[in-house]
Amino acid sequence: MPVGGRPAVVTTQPAPFPISVTHLADVPGLVRCPHCHNIVTSEVTYQSGKAAWCTCMLLAMMGLICGFCLIPLMVRGLQDAHHSCPHCKKHLHVYTR
Q1: 45 inside domain
Q2: Quick one: pLDDT band at residue 16, thresholds 50, 70, 90?
Q3: Which GO terms describe its molecular function (predicted)?
């Protein structure tokens, strides 16, 4: 028994379970790869999508040229997340904004 006469409390967390590939968001997720059937944490790469380009065009039409209209292309919150499997490198899902 530990000091003080109280028993030690041991808590355990449940094992993580993979989510469906279609429920991936803009952060890596634990999934079962449909190609190699391994349970993996997806790799995420970010690429400019429709939201970034539309914001860029809107800023250009408002007169913010000289490079200011290109700022949305560098903001991660406006980019699409492309998920892939780290083992087989196959494409899993695209989370669009």
Answers
A1: yes
A2: low
A3: zinc ion binding
Per-residue pLDDT, 36:
87
Residue 95 to residues 11, 46, 50, 62, 67, Cα–Cα distance (Å): 35, 10, 12, 28, 27
User: What range defines the domain where residue 42 resides?
Assistant: 27-95
Q: Give how many domains the chain has, as a whole number.
A: 1
Helix ranges restricted to H, the chain: 50-61
* Residue 8 within any structural domain of the chain: no
Q: Is 52 left (phi over 0), alpha (psi -120 to 50) or beta?
A: alpha
Q: Name residue 19's beta-bridge partners.
A: 31
Determine, yes or no, domain membership for 54: yes
For the chain, give the percent of residues with pLDDT over 90: 7
Nearest to 27 by CA among 86, 76, 89, 73: 76
